[in-house]
Amino acid sequence: MSSTTTQAPSKRESRPVSKGEHDPWQPLDDLVASLRNYVREEPDVAACICLGVGFILGWKLKPW
Prior knowledge:
Layout: H1 27-41, H2 43-60
Helix pairs in contact: 1-2
């Protein structure tokens, strides 16, 4: 008598996702895609945000 065991797919195991389906295990990829779309639509706002973040970091991390 042979017994077969089935294993549940682990959470880390990737599975094929169709183009219209959302994969809940890829939040970082979703964030990067959203940021890229925003930068393409609003490049001036994105540049101002980068300039502001750089100014604040440079101000707080100045060497003296």
